[in-house]
Write a structure and sequence with these properties.
single chain, mainly alpha, Rna Polymerase Sigma Factor, Chain: A, Butyryl-CoA Dehydrogenase, subunit A, domain 3
Length: 203
C-alpha cells in the first residue's frame, strides 16, 4: 500500500470514528479541489454560474460526503490506484450534474457536443478528408447518432471522459476497471465511432 493511500485510509478511519478534527482536516485538504471540480463542471456544461453557486455546491458536496454516517466516503475503496482526491472529485462532479438536472439545465447544456472532434476524427491538419469538410453542426449530429449505436460500455466511457470531462484514472474508478482497460476501451470506442461517421458520410 502506498504512503498516500495509507494516509487517505488513516484520515477516513478517524472521520468514521467521529474525530471532529479529522473531519475538519479532510474539508481543508480537499476544499480547493472541490471548488475546482464544481467550476470545471459548470464550464464544460456551458452553464453560467456565480460565486454563490460555487459556494453552495461546494458545501453540498461535503454534506453529501458526511451524511448518513459518511456513506459516500465509506464507498471509497482505493482500487486501481484511485486516490481519495479522485473519489471526492468524482462525487463533486456528480453533485453538480444532479443539481443541473433538477434545475432542468442538463438538456440545454448538452446541446453542444463536448467531444473533442479532432481527436475522434483524427483530422488534425487533414483538410483533404471528406469528413473534415462537413459543417460543425453536421459533425455533431453524426457524432450523437454514432454514440447511440455504441455498446453501453462505450457510451458510458464517452459520457464520463468526453462529456463530463473526467480524466482516464477517474473513469477507471467509476467503471471499476483498470486504467489500462480504460485506454483500450477509449481506443476501440473512438475507432468504432470514427468508422460509423465515415460510413455515414460516404453513403
Amino acid at each position: 500500500m502506498s504512503s498516500s493511500l495509507a494516509e487517505d485510509r488513516g484520515l477516513l478511519a478517524k472521520c468514521f470514528a467521529g474525530d471532529r478534527e479529522a473531519g475538519e482536516a479532510l474539508v481543508r485538504r480537499f476544499s480547493n479541489l472541490v471548488y475546482q471540480a464544481v467550476q470545471h463542471t459548470f464550464i464544460v456544461k456551458h452553464v453560467r454560474y456565480t460565486k454563490e453557486d460555487l459556494q453552495d455546491l461546494h458545501n453540498t458536496v461535503f454534506l453529501r460526503l458526511f451524511e448518513e454516517g459518511g456513506k459516500k466516503l465509506r464507498q471509497y475503496q482505493g482500487k486501481n490506484g484511485c486516490s481519495l482526491a479522485t473519489w471526492i472529485r468524482l462525487i463533486a462532479v456528480r453533485t453538480v450534474l444532479d443539481h443541473l438536472r433538477k434545475k432542468g439545465v442538463d438538456s440545454i447544456a448538452c446541446r453542444d457536443a463536448l467531444i473533442a472532434l479532432d481527436e475522434v476524427y483524427g483530422l488534425k491538419g487533414d483538410e483533404s478528408h471528406g469528413v473534415a469538410l462537413l459543417e460543425r453542426a453536421e459533425k455533431e449530429r453524426l457524432l450523437r447518432e454514432g454514440i447511440q449505436n455504441l455498446s453501453p460500455r462505450d457510451r458510458l466511457f464517452m459520457k464520463l471522459h468526453f462529456d463530463q470531462g473526467l480524466p482516464v484514472a477517474e473513469v477507471a474508478a467509476a467503471m471499476q476497471v483498470s486504467v489500462e482497460n480504460v485506454y483500450i476501451i477509449k481506443h476501440r470506442a473512438i475507432q468504432r465511432l470514427r468508422a460509423q461517421v465515415v460510413s455515414a458520410t460516404s453513403n
